[in-house]
Amino acid sequence: FQPNSGAQGEYAGLRAIQAYHQSRGDTHRNVCLIPVSAHGTNPASAQMAGMDLEPIKVTLDGGIDIEDLKEKVEKHSKNLSCLMITYPSTFGVFEDQVADICEIVHQHGGQVYLDGANMNAQVGLCRPGDYGSDVSHLNLHKTFCIPHGGGGPGMGPIGVKSHLAPFLPNHPVVPLFSEEEDEQSFGAVSAAPFGSSAILPISWAYIKMMGNKGLRKATQVAILNANYMSKLLENHYKTLYKSPTSGLVAHEFIIDVRDFKKTANIEAVDIAKRLMDFGFHAPTMSWPVGGTLMIEPTESEDKQELDRFCDALICIREEIQEIADGKMDTRVNPLKMAPHTQSQVINSEWDRPYTREKAAFPISFVRADNKIWPTVGRIDDIYGDKHLVCTCPPILSEY
């Protein structure tokens, strides 16, 4: 329970794998295989653990390229430490050959680290250890009810198979193992022996209250919601990756909006900003594929909310088509000028070539009595990303 985040869980799991290899005299095993579709923290954690990275290609349908995996495994057979894999993949697809992938790595003496970021599509349905994972972390702040927003704290405890258990993190002040076992542990990953232990009762209570059936139902609904939304949007946006066998997605899916740049000068960021006028926070933008939006509805929202979100995206798609058809300017339009603040809409001057109503109340479910107003209009995101120190005027200048 020591890791305070998923990334710390990754690091702890990789260090446990390293300690395991070292205990067997395989100190040369330091190559970590990582699919190019992996979470960005995967290569970062492997680098911090001192491993050499080898990327694995993915196929057009979002799965791991088995032939490339076999080639890389053969190439690094003597020095292979582990494979880091996310299941279902970050592209929102269940790997049909996940058990075979794990077996290939095991045949060459490697271990399998499963990134638990997408455990919301597995709880109650499958167990990572059954299909080949040796170690995995659980994001309690994602899958098990601890709030994810507001800066945390998070929890990323790891689970391991028995052969890796002696190499789990220990603590210099509060020993977690016997003296003999402590000699095999690689050390600590956080200041407290059990991480942010005060928030663990949240996950415990959630699991106890949900029970086996409830946890399984939550997973099933999360997968159902993602497929429902993908189906609703299929005539308006392309779902980038689907299972080649079932044609379905996992608990999340990616919509491809890159072509709109050519036809209407609209990018993913414009859609994200426009969603604010509909009262929605944008989904993950330009990751894991640049110029796309990744939608992960989870099990938490009801069907009416999912419908409203899809209706908002469909309405935005119609606005994009108006721009493409020349009915609206490519630079001054509801998407490029979004979000629209209350002060802008009630200002006596309105020089935009679309109505105030279209700007602030673009669809029937957005009304004056439930409108969530953005506090600021469009800002320069790129400038903000490059300049970490606030360039706002001093507070005293306002008085």
TrEMBL record:
Origin organism lineage: Eukaryota, Metazoa, Ecdysozoa, Arthropoda, Hexapoda
Identification of the protein by name: glycine dehydrogenase (aminomethyl-transferring)
A biological-process GO annotation: glycine decarboxylation via glycine cleavage system
Keyword rRNA-binding: no
Origin species: Clastoptera arizonana
Residue ranges of domain Glycine dehydrogenase C-terminal in the record: 218-340
EC numbers for this chain: 1.4.4.2
Keywords: Oxidoreductase, Pyridoxal phosphate
GO function terms (MF aspect): glycine binding; glycine dehydrogenase (decarboxylating) activity; pyridoxal phosphate binding
Catalytic class of the enzyme: oxidoreductase
GO cellular component: glycine cleavage complex; mitochondrion
Span of domain Glycine cleavage system P-protein N-terminal: 66-169
Catalytic activity: N(6)-[(R)-lipoyl]-L-lysyl-[glycine-cleavage complex H protein] + glycine + H(+) = N(6)-[(R)-S(8)-aminomethyldihydrolipoyl]-L-lysyl-[glycine-cleavage complex H protein] + CO2
UniProt cross-references to InterPro entries, sorted A to Z: GDC-P_C, GDC-P_N, GDC_P, PyrdxlP-dep_Trfase, PyrdxlP-dep_Trfase_major, PyrdxlP-dep_Trfase_small
Cofactor(s) in the UniProt record: pyridoxal 5'-phosphate
SUPFAM superfamilies: PLP-dependent transferases
Pfam families recorded: GcvP2_C, GDC-P
Coiled-coil ranges from the UniProt annotation: none
